[in-house]
Amino acid sequence: MGRTIRQAARATLHLLVAAVLAFGLYLFITVLLITAIGTVAVVGAWMLPETVLLIRRIAGAKRALTAGWTGRRIPEAYQPITGPLRERLRTAVRDPGTLTDLRWMAASYVYGALLFAVLPLWPLGLVVDGVWCGLLRREAVVLPLVTRLADLEARWSQALLKPSPQALLAARVEELAATRADAIAAHGAELRRIERDLHDGAQARLVALSMRIGLAQRAYDRDPEAARKLLADAQDQAEEALTELRQVVRGIHPPILTDRGLVGAVRALAAGSGLEVTVRVDGGLEEGPRAPAAVEAAAYFAVAEALTNAAKHSGSRRATVQLERVPRGLRAVVQDEGMGGADDKGGTGLLGIRRRVAAMDGEVTVTSPAGGPTTIAVELPCVW
User: Fold this and answer.
1) Cα–Cα distance for residue pair 61/372, rounded to 1 Å
2) How far does the chain reach from its first CA to its final CA, in angstroms?
3) Is the separation of the CB atoms in 19 and 114 below 8 Å?
4) Cystine design at 147: which of 11, 53, 96, 137 (Cβ 3.0–4.6 Å)?
5) For the whole model, what pTM was predicted?
6) Sheet bearing 363-367, strands edge to edge
């Protein structure tokens, strides 16, 4: 009986907040009328985009309320209202999300008052269910109706606030356009980095090597000892140039990733890190088939960047890397025990991870409260 009362009380609170929101929508009718009159009169046309933005915030509050009850998030799919007034008006009117929100508002004027259907159930339920459960030891029959009404209200809100297929498609196109732009920017930055590394490192050493060999050729007849010394220096510079070329190649696609796979490559990263890194592998990642090369490379570089950031900025001595095969693809999580406060604006490391993962249509989640710990979770879709 106690559990039933608590659940009914929670459902009543949900319906109470929904009723307050519905009452606010009744007051909002005045704003809608003023906006309609101003738009028809042209003078107040600027109010229409602002009113649509306000409706979006109200609908967002309702989505959050419904998600809190059902545990399932309701997605949003809106076109951004930006630019000059004419463009803002066109977007506000043509956005499918506007029609969805107005349809929900019209329905909410009716079903938002379900709270009044709940109020009579409480005294009846306390008496009937008190006798039914307390004396006869049976299941409650009246108070569970309160929870069912809350479920009904949430289902209606979910159905009305769910974006239309056109809105979801438009949002997906916007997302893919942004992802493509980030991928192009990341690719350009990578090419510039490779060019800079070759120009400042290996190329400079190869030029010096060529000069040493030329000097050795000139000095060979008249001073063989000096020529041998120059050739020895040239050999050292050739080895240094080879080392730098290997580092450039590792930055493009590490050979260890091809030879040993993602798990072996990450363990090598952990061994070479300045931290005490524990690597955990779950989901049968070592035994099953490997992920595509592009997915493995994105996960490898994300883990490498996260460990580098942890070693430089976290102040922690230990970190944990978890690699896991999930139904949708591959998941990599890096956690340190540092001071926290990691932010995309603090440098290019996290931004680079986001761009690389976004190019694979993946997701990056960063949790870094003040005082730590910092957790960076990367999910990359792939077919196993």
Assistant:
1) 30
2) 48
3) yes
4) 11
5) 0.56
6) 276-282, 318-326, 329-336, 374-381, 363-367
